Every structure is written in structure tokens, then in C-alpha cells.
Amino acid sequence: MHNRLPTHTRLGTYITMALLLLFFLFMLRNCASALYYGTITNDLDISRSYQSGFADGQEQSENLKGQPKKHIANPLLLKMYRKGFRDSRDKNRCKDEIR
User: pLDDT below 50 — which residues of the chain?
Assistant: First the structure.
């Protein structure tokens, strides 16, 4: 007797394995990128990026514009810029609600 799985079951298994492999590769790339940028970026650059985002958030909160339009290639610096921008906007929003 020859016990073979049906074609649709084997095909589903292959597609699932391919998708899991693709997902794993994307996760591995993201992890490697985080490690790389985490090691080459110094604390001074991170602090400057946060302060720049905070200052831009102060300016834009007065003009009531949307999200920042700045393009930063380093994902760690971009994350800190956005964090500074959000912190600034939240700080101003809290001030406005208290008034």
C-alpha cells in the first residue's frame, strides 16, 4: 500500500513552509539591521535626533500641521526623531487641555 497525502495537502504544506521561511528571513533582516545600527550609532547622534524631533514638534504644534516630513536613513535615529516629535506634541496638547 502506498499512503500518499492528497495533492492539495502537500501543496498547502509547501506554501506554508515557503511563507514561514520568507517571514523568518524578514525577521532575521530586521534583527541584523537593528544590531548594525545600534552598534554604529553613538549616543550623541541619538540625543541630537531626539532634540531635533522635539524642536520640530514645538514648531509644528503652533502651526497645527500633521506628521513630520523629515527623511532619515538610519532607522534608530528616525525612531528617536519621531519619539521627540510625539513627546513635544503630547506636551503641548497637555498644556492646551489644562488651559
Answer: none
